[in-house]
Amino acid sequence: MKIDRILVVLYFVLCCMVGVLSIFRLGEIILYLKGAIVLVVALIFFVQESKFSPVVATLLLLSFFGETYYLYVKSYTETIPIVLFLCINLIFLVLSWLDVKEKEWSQAEFFKLVVLMGLLGAFVYIILSLDLKHTNVNFVLYIIYSIVFVVMFILSFANFVKTHQKSSLYLVLFGLSVFISDLSFLLNNYFIKLAFLRIGGNLSQVLGYYLMLNYFLERNKKEEFIKVDN
């Protein structure tokens, strides 16, 4: 078995462990596992590409520190992790914009984007309408995070509608995993505590790293094809 396949198997084993341990609320161990998952994803990427671009390296570093932040500090605060993941969404927002900025849109495609924008806007409104008075995060930060995420997701979806490329599909799925993870986190912490929300939130979060990995692998293949074609 090749080293990259071994690493992929290890990745999914760690994800399963995160799901199982989420049942028993073993938060600190889960944080270690999430950090290990990010490192395994980094190894898979390096094995397949033999190098890291500045963008990928930055995303992996932000992800690692965002996942393991609470292992370094004694006081509980959500602000720093949210800022780190906000930076991740901003990077994907820029990448999505670069993918769609030169494309022309038909009326049907534009209508799909408007519908999606309305649905996402409604979801965000519902989320931000939850009772968040017990959080120690400035509410404005939640609004900024939500706006950045919605715009990023709409642009990535727009690119997929237009091109049907694998890279854009992985980015859309990554956005969905982030949405499910964030929604589960908010519901579980500020509305109703349910085991399936805790498990689903953690699993969708760690599975998002595999989607992120495949997005960049497919994006690199596309760029290499364009270079060869030229």
Could you give the count of β-strands?
0
- Helix content bin: over 70%
Overall pLDDT confidence: 85
Find the structural class using helix and strand composition. mainly alpha
Give the N-to-C terminal Cα separation: 35 Å
**Strand portion, in percent?**
under 5%
What does the model show?
- This protein has 230 residues and is mostly helical.
- The protein has 8 helices and no strands.
- The chain has helices spanning 3-23, 27-49, 54-72, 79-100, 107-128, 139-163, 166-190, 195-229.
- Helix 3 (54-72) runs antiparallel to helix 4 (79-100).
- The protein is globular.
Strand and helix layout:
Elements: H1 3-23, H2 27-49, H3 54-72, H4 79-100, H5 107-128, H6 139-163, H7 166-190, H8 195-229
Short structural summary:
With 230 residues, this protein is mainly α. It is 83% helix and 0% strand.
